[in-house]
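Run log, item B.
One chain of 176 residues. Sequence copied directly from the ordering sheet:
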Amino acid sequence: MNRVKNSFLLIVIFLLAAVFRFLGLNWDQGHFLHPDERFLNMTIQELALPKNLGEYFDPQLSTFNPRNIGRDFFVYGNFPISLSKLINVILKIESLAEITISGRVLSALADLMIIPLIYLTVLLLEKNIKDKRLTISTHSKFWASLIYALMVLPIQQAHFFTTDTFLNLFVFTSFY
């Protein structure tokens, strides 16, 4: 396959995945049915931007530390909630319903970023396997990307603002 066909096929797979991940993000119609998502969004709503970088890095004073706002049992990572809070501040999003939707968009974007990583990882494997005189289909990078794009669990997880899609992204990044 030439470069134009490869690019076109990957774009089609990416767009197909985007449709499945962004379609119906308001699936619960504002009822906040997922308990982890609801907890994260309520925490984001209560967080405040730190006054300076020193305050951010001080875990005892940081207003970005969930434990400092009464969330003593916070078992999630800080990256997704910090990213969401920053974007919500920039976009002036304050209501829980809007925070939920913006978080779901972030989750869907994080999951979408995995598809090019899968393509690149399989491409890298193809190159390494060719060096060892083994055979692998030249289409396997597209099949792997398409299979992930159509998998039900990643599509479902992209419809929640939880830490799962971010974790999945970083795991796939470490593979590459």
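Observations after the first pass:
- Residues 3-23+32-175 form one domain.
- The two ends are 23 Å apart (CA to CA).
Flagged for discussion on Thursday.
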